[in-house]
Amino acid sequence: MTLNATIDRVTDRIRSRSQDSRDAYLRKIAKAAEDGPRRAHLSCGNQAHAYAAMSDKDDMATTRKPNIGIITAYNDMLSAHQPYERYPDLIRRAGHEAGATVQVAGGVPAMCDGVTQGRPGMELSLFSRDVIALAAGVALSHDCFDAALYLGVCDKIVPGLVMAAATFGHVPAVFLPAGPMPSGLPNDEKSRVRQQFASGEVGREALMEAEMASYHSPGTCTFYGTANSNQMLMEFMGLHLPGSSFVNPNTELRDALTLAGVQRAAALTRLGNDYLPAGHVLDEKAFVNGMVGLMATGGSTNLVMHIPAMARAAGIHIDIEDFHDISEAVPLMARVYPNGLADVNHFHAAGGIGYMIHHLLDAGLLHEDVKTINGTGLDGYTTEPKILDGRLQWQAGTDTSLNDKILRPVANPFAQTGGLKQLQGNLGRGVIKVSAVAQDRHIIEARARVFSDQEQVKEAFRAGEFTEDTIVVVRFQGPRANGMPELHSLTPTLAVLQDRGLKVALVTDGRMSGASGKVPAAIHISPEASVGGPLARVRNGDVIRLDATMGTIDCLAEDFETRTAVPFEAGDSIEGMGREMFAAFRAVAGPATSGAGVVV
Fold this sequence. Notes:
The structure is a single chain. This protein is of the alpha/beta class. It has two domains: 358 residues, no CATH class; 175 residues, IlvD/EDD C-terminal domain-like (Glucose Oxidase, domain 1), CATH 3.50.30.80. It contains 22 helices and 16 strands. The chain has an eight-stranded mixed sheet. Helix 19 links the parallel strand 11 and strand 12. It is globular. Belongs to the IlvD/Edd family. Its EC number is 4.2.1.12.
């Protein structure tokens, strides 16, 4: 199938925009790789330190077996990461069977956004991505590894690990998922109870019961938020094995896929015939394919920030206009909560990623000619893994949806576009995700209520102050102000107002996450208010027009352009809960529109 003209144009635009930086990046990783296996250049003393604790140290010292380094985000605070506790032993066994040695190179932090939502710790969340990249870089700096395995699932963890993999782009990289927890309380029922609690209809006991029934076992949360969007992205970009993203933890198939991933890592080193540097997988086509997957699945708005940051680490520059144009060309093929009632287990059972890639390739909406850890070409990602006769095999995946309420073909999608819109106007640039927003709420014009943090919004709600259509402006939430926390805890409050018949929308320089849904939310507004961006000039009572159809966002006050910006007052956001240590990050963070990066 001929490549879609928009996909082709956007790819060429990214390639042209990135030419100098990408060429410099490729020269850098080529130079790093030219001396062959790295540990051969370590002194005997260096090597002895590196091998001292290994049971197979003689192999390391006397043979040319590939040495695989594990970068792990294991902890048992995150249900998604708890299964990784078993992985090092599995990986060592698989490595030895593949003729390789294996070491845990280092661990990286992994915080749970579900725990920190609405709490001070959430102000460290975005910056944890860059800390993860730094920590992984420290682990890889031992220069002992012929390939690296990356163990991570959740929101900031996978982007941080990809940034490190790109920075050490001469080292082959394989990402190993852990899989989603089995389905528990349906996500829409959980959301309903949350709204009942927000409106005072039920007490905390009922809320706790619902939450515990939803988040109930090891594995990734089952709604299609950032964590599961990350897993989709790794498969569309060729860093996972085909069909591996949404296999449940601690199952025979899950373990078999982990072992197969180790075998691929051993095969991709410079010591073999299939050397594949991570930086060659992470090219312009791979990132475009990732963006196509994001739009076709209705994935997390957080990736609109993370993809540019990951790409910059590989010398590639992506802008929000690229997301917008791809969204206009790619239909919405999936309905997974919060864009529908299904969870990721239902999505996977209906045909999942393999089905989507099959149809997107047939429609010319994906680059097929890419390098992946599975081999050259994306067509292999239309297959699905199975255990047959006691061994792992890949078979042709379904080309027919097994549930058209969850998954549909390109020719009969849920919507003709991916639902992500770029917004521009006198309030700046940002994005809005409308795939779950009712059509009659794509345009909202109403008076503004201005707040400096999300708790003020909740207090106004509890006081009964929202009695008319309202644009809720929450400013001073950008990366330089307070680390750009997610404002997901506002979702029940705003949803209650909308269910009461009011037209409401959120406008913010903060984030809303992959859990945003039916309430219109103009997010990532840049320049942010704390550096004098336009949101700092908005006043209570100003009429704001948010038009997701035309892609505009404007304050209609006649004197808006001549006003003086309200100065930023940091308040409590500069200290407590470790926030003091991140002052240097806040001072240099880039704008949200280019990824809000600190280290790239």
